[in-house]
Amino acid sequence: GKVSLNLPVLYQNEPNPFNSSTTIRFDIPANYTKANLYIYTYQGEQIKSYKIDTKRTGSIQIKGSEYKPGIYLYSLIVDGKEISTKKMILTK
Fold first, then answer.
1. Under 8 Å between Cβ of 59 and 76
2. How far apart, in whole angstroms, are the C-alpha atoms of residue 18 and residue 77?
3. What pLDDT digit, counting tens, does each position of 16-47 carry?
4. How far apart, in Å, are the Cα atoms of 89 and each of 8, 49, 61, 84?
5. Helix/strand/coil for 12
6. What is the pLDDT of residue 53?
7. Separation of alpha carbons 45 and 77, rounded Å
8. 44-63 burial by CB neighbour count: b if 16+ within 10 A, else e?
């Protein structure tokens, strides 16, 4: 039969663009051991990192007040591999 691969998934933050806060959701299957979410400036400078509990569906809340308005990138790295990178926009 066909083996379905349980792969980690990173979702687009909601709402986007955001002002006061936004939520980034992700799914990490149980067969992975280490996961982190990194937030970068649009220029590629890492400004924040979150350790993610693996083996779960979860989310991280981002507060607009912690950042300057602008475009940011966020990446999900699982077991050393970049799963996905998405763009989020913080408005004034």
1. no
2. 23
3. 999 999 999 999 998 899 999 999 999 999 99
4. 23, 18, 14, 17
5. coil
6. 80
7. 16
8. eeeeeeeebebeeebebebe
Residue 5 scores a pLDDT above 80: no
Give the C-alpha separation, 13 to 26, whole Å: 10
SS3 for 66? helix
The percent helix, strand, coil of the chain (3-state, each to 5) is 5, 60, 40
pLDDT tens digits for 68-81? 999 999 999 999 99
